[in-house]
Amino acid sequence: MACCGVGIGSRVQAQPASAFPSRPVTLVVPWPAGGATDLTMRILGDIAGRHLGQPVVVENRPGAAGTLVATALRAATPDGYTIGQLPLTLYRFPFQQKVSWDPLRDITPVIQISGVTFGIVVPADSLFQSLPELMAWARAHPGSLTVGSTGIGTTAHLAMEEITAAEGVSYIHVPYKGTADQMLAVAGKTLMVGVNSTGFAPYVDGGKLRLLAVFSAQRSKRWPQVPTVKELGYANAVHNSPYGIGAPVGTDVAIVRKLHDALKLAMFDPQHLLEIAKYDQEPDYLGSADYARHLQQMSARERMLLARLGLAVAPGQTGTAR
Description:
Elements: H1 2-13, E1 25-29, H2 36-52, E2 56-60, H3 68-75, E3 82-86, E4 98-99, H4 103-106, E5 107-114, E6 118-123, H5 131-140, E7 146-149, H6 155-167, E8 172-175, H7 179-187, E9 193-197, H8 201-205, E10 209-214, E11 243-248, H9 253-267, H10 270-277, E12 283-286, H11 288-309, E13 319-320
Helix pairs in contact: 2-9, 2-10
């Protein structure tokens, strides 16, 4: 029986890439269920599963500003059956605190999918009609403005820090695990301001929230009347937080190619395009090799941004803890 057990284990480990996948694939989404990213990832996974011939099942692991996907991928067997959505925060956190993972070393990039539009929203009947009005009020009432984001160190948080630092404004930062709870807090007026990706779209279009400005390089096609933060005088405040899909390092290149091909077909599928369009997103495709190079460059840019904002921890206090 012991010999048989070893034989079975060897056959499982030696399963050829051509047989992949022979069971469902888990897609780790490091955000709460029901938010914009979760909804778009579920549709992407459903379509990719059809091309793979096996279901792609979403597993939500919210918290820690979207970085819990790193621990999940680092702990997973590199066989292609566990993949994850890679938010920009993965490539930012190692410069802010000690972590048990290294995104450039522990994760194999599979494909870049898209980027998001970030914006500043207030209740529809807020006294703030514009971002300059909001900043003027905050200067006149130091420490009174409450601003929500999707977590400490997320793009939404740093984008607002960039503006308030330029204005010399102090405010109360309220971190949330995801989009839905933050938008409900703003719409319910328990939070004065929300900074988020376009999970706010249904609330803005439904008349519950007012969009004051977006962090894109150009005005949104969906809300062309809304100014960019850049055109309001904050030249460096352009953020779109590109994201993609990754697998554990060591995953067979043939399996990575299969995952890439299925996900590429899925991301350009009309159903997925229609879904991301709801959140003012467009496909921003990069293949595995180009995505890997882009992540190296993005990591370097994140280090510089954090240093410019005074939010980077000294080198000896950051990095991976093994």
